[in-house]
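lol ok so funny story. i was supposed to be doing the assay writeup but got distracted and ended up predicting the structure for this chain instead. priorities right. anyway since i did it might as well share w the group, maybe its usefull for someone
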Amino acid sequence: MLGRECYSNSPILNSSSGAGHVTNIGGLNSYVTGSHLSVLVILLISDIFDKLAVKGGYRVVCPDLFNGDPFDPENENRPMPVWLEDHPPEKGFEIVKPVIEALKKEGASAIGAAGFCWGAKPVADLAKSKCIEVSELLHPAFVEVNDIDEVKIPIAILGGQNDTISPPELIKQFKQVLDAKHEVPSLVKIFPNAPHGWTVRYDPKDPIAVKAAEKAHQIIEKSCYVPLCPRVEDGKCYLFHSYNFDYKYKTGME
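and the output, tada:
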């Protein structure tokens, strides 16, 4: 079950935010930033992905997987268990497939996926399907050992030492499974003193938290390259992020 860590301490938008636009991709309203000529895509969660678009030359895409219905912690009549009945993570795979198909029609030669919290489950399912080239799970929720056992593509999993939703014990089990899968390149890392949501939900005034998040962001970028993504030509791939409990579609992000 998810906790307050999943929706507290929301990312703060600043002057680097809003560099992109909202468009329809595969039937989903999606925030897009970066060059439309790039054969690299990342799904946007917060302003960090604008930075990745500039630095890595990626095209960044963040589809609204919740169809304009993010979880609202202030709505006491619709607690998270009720909200999850309308947005089960097991359905995320089918929701995001049309987006991937649309990206391929637009010329994507390699597609990757990264999922945070809720989004980790659909990304794990994508990693089992081989319809993408590289996958990333960050403080994953709803992911089980059996999911990892079926992964067929390069994968990176980042967890936090103080994460009670995806605790270190579970992340270590994921690593044991992946270590036995010699045919699947993998990277598993547990960040010290990091809580759930630490890669996107952190206090920007806390230098330790900022450093840990920035390190995770670097791993997100570098996992596009060898050895995690050996099939990508010229070090280029689409990086696809499916996540956000408070992604709000209006004219962009809020």
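The CA atoms of residues 193 and 217 lie 17 Å apart. The longest strand covers residues 28-33.
back to the writeup now i swear
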